[in-house]
Amino acid sequence: MPFDAASYEILKSEAFIGGQWVGADSGETQDVFNPASGETIGTVPFMGAAEATRAVEAAQAAFPSWKAMTPHERADILMAWHDLIHDYKQELADIMTAECGKPLDQSLGEVVYGASFIKWFAEEGKRVYGDTIPAKQRDRRLIVTKEAAGVTSAITPWNFPNACVTRKIAPALAAGCTQVLKPAPDTPYSATALAYLAQKAGLPDGVLNVVTGDAAPIGKVLTSHEAIRVMTFTGSTGVGKILAEQCGRHIIKASLELGGNAPFIIFDDADVEDAVSEVIASKFRNSGQTCVCANRILLQDGIFDRFAEAFSARVSAMKVGHGDDQHGVDIGPLINKAGYDKVARHVDDAVSKGAKVLAGGSPHELGGNFYQPTVLSDASKEMQLAHEETFGPVAALYRFATEEEAIMTAN
Fold this sequence. Notes:
It contains 12 helices and 16 strands. Helix 6 links the parallel strand 8 and strand 9. It is α/β, with parallel strands linked by helices and 411 residues long. The two termini are 46 Å apart. The strands form 5 sheets. Strands 9-8-7-10-11 form a 5-stranded parallel beta sheet, sandwiched between helices. Strands 12-13-16-15-14 form a 5-stranded mixed beta sheet, with helices on both faces. A two-stranded antiparallel ribbon has the order 1-2. Helix 2 packs antiparallel against helix 4, helix 2 packs across helix 6 and helix 3 runs antiparallel to helix 6. Helix content is 41%, strand content 18%.
């Protein structure tokens, strides 16, 4: 790995089950790549159903004692974890940039943001109050208490490999639940590093488990094992449907955060410079690879040309480069070739159907998974990017006349 072992003690290339760092039963591994350079930066175990089942069993065994702790005792461990993340924030950011391609300043921001979930839920765990309900009979008292659900499972995406992990682990652990986590294959090291720091903070064995490997069999265990009570997933709508169906067969509660194609509506009375800045921040964070990115920019007739000119100038000036470049990189690489191909396909389709390229519109000179930050004008509902989430640095501008038209297009 291109990491200094002395500086990166938190970097773990094994899975984490029952408090032990382990490989796959088969000895198989899968490569982890740097999306900017294409280099292999390491491997993680390629596990399957057997290892996932053991992880669930470890979480099940740890649940009674973890649940029996007071919320304040759990909060102390979570806050120790939070503090260690801040102590190692540079290392965590470097790991994230290496496996995700995110510009380093954005990675640092995500590490701090991710730690904030742990602090929030550590405190909120102390405030899981019940209710006293007035009864109909004088000799009865009705009391509702809230209990930890049990073992939870989580499947997380690659685009926020720190924050999406902490956002799922922290509330489960604060409530007294245990968890089995499957991180995205593109970005497993952020998750295993977090698990190492949790262990270092004093988290008991089995409370958190991290399984890497074959998505289908692992996912099936995490949506069907009799010990699982809640499954949480962030990712594509297509995969979400499969997981929800599998959970439904076993009456496992599913919490899903899926894809979208978010609109950003700008009316004639908007401040153009403010609007440009807000769209830049919303559209191009993590090279446009976030599920809450504004993909369809809806502009009223009177402001369309002024916005398009100012916006295109700002986008054209954005710096594209490797995420570990310390000199103001705005746009890093797409996560992999499939992500790059989708962006290129959407741009080509839009241009073939009448879109005008105001900025970018082609592969970047850096090659590989790099694509120019792009602005397309005259977008229409016939184009693929109107119906599919692009997940890349492509902003499509749509024209509208009335508020009613904007709402209809947005919906």
